[in-house]
Amino acid sequence: MSEVVLQAAETLNKADAILIGASNGLSIAEGLHLFADNQAFEKLFGDFKEKYGLRCILHGMGGRWPLEEEKWAFWSRLICHYCGQYRPTQVMQDLRAIVGGKDYFIVTSNGEGHFALGGFAPQQIYEVEGTWLAMQCAQPCHNALYPTLKPAERMVAAERDGRVPADLLPRCPRCGGPMEIHIAAGHRQIPDTGAQQRYEAFLRRYHEKKLVVLELGIGWRNQLIKAPLMRLVAQEPHAAYITINLGEVYIADDIQNRSFGLDGSVSDLLFLLRKACAS
Ligand SMILES: [Zn+2]
């Protein structure tokens, strides 16, 4: 096993707490590729591809669907397949083993809920761009979030020819208007202030402690998660930084001496890291 993996494992084992940052590269390691026109996309959305020219999952998530019946056919299929039928992958199991009994927090731009579905505590996860598993009033006329999984299962069961029957379409319980998936609500998105506050409390709790930032599959130019995490490490004297990415390992100059860059497949490296942590 390479020296850098062993050193990263040793750092993790000595940590007071672990802060996980994750983005699209982790989803890809789990077999969910938002940008790909691959076999999985063809299987789940081949009819939409043919009918509307849908190019990938992300395209559908940001799509201006002509009808609510079609919008909800897309989302309910997506949610049932990738959330309802999700079983924790090797990647998630390795990550849980690496964290072990340590305190942790997860900051992610992934909205498919796999951390919580994979056994991490929902109270210790902040999905910064929103979630697939909640919906809100599209306006919104009020600030409540509503679960999507059960309604999605009902919609998938009743869908015909890429459309959900009108009587099953989610409606706002207050104004009766259309609903929007939380992550797709754009500038109207209701912020998850609870998760934000819990994240800030976690950072206060481990201020000047041995905090290890474990960053998974985040592109080198990412400003939403990666840049703030590197700044955090620069400001925290005892923090360390581990980044895992395929072909895109980037570490800011001012934290090089406290960082470990693991270039390779996220799934392979998490597996190696788990073994190294246990040895
Ligand atoms: Zn409303």
Number of strands: 9
Structure class? alpha/beta
* Count of DSSP-assigned helices: 11
Spatial order of strands in the largest sheet: 3-2-1-7-8-9
**How far apart, in Å, are the first and last alpha carbons?**
12 Å
Give helix % range: 40-55%
Subunit arrangement of the protein: single chain
The whole-angstrom Rg is 20 Å
Largest sheet, in brief, is:
6 strands, parallel
Overall domain count: 2
Report the CATH architecture of the largest domain. 3-Layer(aba) Sandwich
- Mean pLDDT across every amino acid position: 96
> What share of residues are in beta strands?
5-15%
User: Could you say what the CATH topology of the largest domain is called?
Assistant: Rossmann fold
Low-confidence stretches: none
**Element order: H for helix, E for strand:** HEHHHHHEHEEEHEHEHEEH
CATH class of the largest domain: Alpha Beta
CATH homologous superfamily of the largest domain, by name? TPP-binding domain
Shape: globular
Ligands in the structure? zinc ion
